[in-house]
Amino acid sequence: MEYKYSIKTFNGNIDNIGDTMAKPVNRTFSRQNLEALELLAKMIRVGRIDRKMSAQEMANRAGISRPLLRRIESADPSCAIGSVFEVAAIAGVPLFGGEPDRIETQRAALTEKLSLLPQRTRKPRRVIHDDF
C-alpha cells in the first residue's frame, strides 16, 4: 500500500500574499504514522455508522465542516489533531486506554516527570583529547 500526501504551507513572502497562492510542499510520513492514521480513521467511521449518524450530523456535532470529516475518515494526515480527537470522542473511539481515570493518572505522572527533567536538552560537548 502506497501513501502519498502533500501539505500546502505558506512560503513566507508576505508582500505577495494576495498575488500568489502558497506553494505546495511535499511531506513524507512514516509508514507507522500512516497505518495508525488509517486505523483511527476506520475506527471513527465504524463508530459513526454504528451510532447511525450521518456525516453531516457528525460534522455539526464536532463543529467542523463535512469535507473535513471526509478527510478525517480517509486518514488525511494534514487534519488538525484537535478535530480528529473530537470526532473520535463523539464516535466513541477510545483514546489512550479509553478510561478517563487512567488518562488523568497518566497525565499527572507525565506532568510530574516533566517537572523533574531539564527544560532544555543539549548535546554533550565533545571532549578533545590532545594527549599525544
Features:
132 residues, mainly alpha, 434 Repressor (Amino-terminal Domain)
Short characterization:
This protein has 132 residues and is mainly alpha-helical. It has 5 helices and 2 strands; from the N terminus they run ββααααα.
Description:
This protein has a two-stranded antiparallel sheet. It is elongated, with a radius of gyration of 21 Å. The chain has helices spanning 31-50, 55-62, 66-73, 81-91, 100-116, and strands at residues 6-8, 24-26. It is built from five helices and two strands. By secondary structure, it is mainly alpha-helical. Helix 2 packs across helix 4. Helices cover 48% and strands 5% of the residues. It starts with 5 loop residues before the first strand and ends in a 16-residue tail after the last helix.
Q: How many extended strands?
A: 2
Written as H for each helix and E for each strand, in order along the chain, the element string is EEHHHHH
| Top CATH class | Mainly Alpha
Percent range for β-strand residues: under 5%
> Class by helix and strand content?
mainly alpha
N/C terminus separation: 56 Å
The pLDDT mean sits at 82
The main sheet comes to: 2 strands, antiparallel
Which fold name fills CATH's third level, the topology?
434 Repressor (Amino-terminal Domain)
What is the global morphology? elongated
CATH superfamily: lambda repressor-like DNA-binding domains
Strand order of the largest sheet: 1-2
Low-confidence stretches: 5-20
What is the domain tally?
1
The rounded Rg comes to: 21 Å
